[in-house]
Amino acid sequence: MGLLRKSIGLSLAVLGLMSCVNSETEKKVGTKYIDIPASADDAGEIESGAFIAFEKKEVLAGDIVQGEVTTHEFAFVNEGSEPLVISSVKGSCGCTVPRTYPRQPVAPGEGGIIEVQFDSAGKSGEQVMTVSVVTNSIPNLTQLLIRAQILVPDNMQTNN
User: Fold this and answer.
1) What does the mean pLDDT of the chain come to?
2) Which residues pair with 64 in a beta bridge?
3) 49 in the same domain as 25
4) Boundaries of domain holding 115
5) 27-56, pLDDT tens digit by residue?
6) Whole-prediction pTM
7) Helix, strand, or coil here: 141?
C-alpha cells in the first residue's frame, strides 16, 4: 500500500510539473493547454475545423482630421476544412462600428471581408481601436486593430 501511494504521489508531482507550460503560442482552455497555430499550415494537431486567416490584422490609417469618418477592410480566408461561422464582430467603442461581414458560413478555401467604420469626432492624438471577431475557428477570438493619428485643425483647438 505504501509503494502504491508513493507511485501515485510521484505521478501527480510529474503531472504537476508538466502542466507548468508557458509559451506565447499556448492558450489556457479550461484546465488544458492547447497549441494555437499561427496559420492552418502550422495546424498539425487540428485535423478538421474552421481556421480564419487574415491578410492583415492591423490597419495603419495614418493621419485623420478630427471629425472624418473612415472605412477599413480586413480580408480573410477560411484555411480550415469545415465551414467558418462568424458569430459576432464588435468594436471596442461606439466610434468603431463593424459595417459588414459574412453572416452565412464561409466554405473552406473561400474568403470574405469585414468592413469597419471609424468616426474620429471628438478624438485627438494617437488612437488604437480594437475590433473583436468571434468565430468557430481555433482560436475563436481574433483581435483586429485600427491605428490612427487624429489631427485637430487650428480653428477647432481651444485654449485650456
Assistant:
1) 78
2) 150
3) no
4) 39-156
5) 333 333 334 444 454 544 455 799 999 999
6) 0.68
7) strand
Note whether 130 and 145 are same-domain residues.
yes
- pLDDT, tens only, 97-144: 999 999 999 999 999 999 999 999 999 999 999 999 999 998 999 999
Residue with cell 477599413: 72
- List, in order, residues 6 or more apart from 8 with CB less than 8 Å away: none
Within this chain, do residues 47 and 16 fall inside the same structural domain, yes or no? Answer: no
At 12 the pLDDT is 38
Q: Please tell me whether residues 70 and 142 are part of one structural domain.
A: yes
| Predicted pLDDT of residue 47 | 58
> 67: phi > 0 → left, psi -120 to 50 → alpha, else beta; which?
left
CA dist 43 to 27, 37, 70, 139, 144, Å? 14, 5, 35, 11, 21
Count of structural domains within the chain: 2
Residues 55 and 86 in one domain: yes
Examine the domain organization and report whether 65 and 17 are in the same domain.
Answer: no
Cβ-proximal residues to 84 (8 Å cutoff; 6+ apart), any chain: 50, 51, 52, 78, 105, 106, 108, 135, 136, 137
